[in-house]
């Protein structure tokens, strides 16, 4: 089975990973390096949701020229 979780821009992998840890810290979720399968679905969703919200805000600011 092929993973559908491929990066559109592979060069951004490191920056996205760092961003994930920053957002996790902001929402109070303790991530460790490597496997984090022990976190709850709720916490994983909080991290992903906040990452998405921040990325959309950044794109909107760029589109608006700010």
Give the SSE order as H and E letters.
Answer: HH
Q: β content, as a range? A: under 5%
Q: Low-confidence stretches at least 5 residues in length (pLDDT < 50)?
A: none
Query: For the CA atoms, what is the radius of gyration?
Result: 14 Å
Gap between N and C termini = 42 Å
Query: Major sheet: size, sense and barrel closure?
Result: none
Shape: globular
Q: What share of the residues lie within helices? A: 55-70%
Question: What does this molecule look like?
Answer:
With 66 residues, this protein is mostly helical. It has a domain at 13-27 and 41-66. The chain contains 2 helices and no strands. The protein has helices at residues 13-26, 41-64. The chain is globular.
């Amino acid at each position: 089975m092929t993973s559908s979780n491929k990066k559109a821009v592979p060069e951004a992998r490191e920056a996205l990973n760092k961003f994930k840890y920053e957002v996790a810290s902001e929402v109070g979720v303790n991530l460790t390096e490597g496997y984090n399968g022990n976190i709850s679905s709720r916490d994983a969703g909080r991290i992903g949701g906040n990452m998405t919200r921040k990325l959309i805000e950044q794109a909107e600011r760029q589109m608006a020229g700010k």
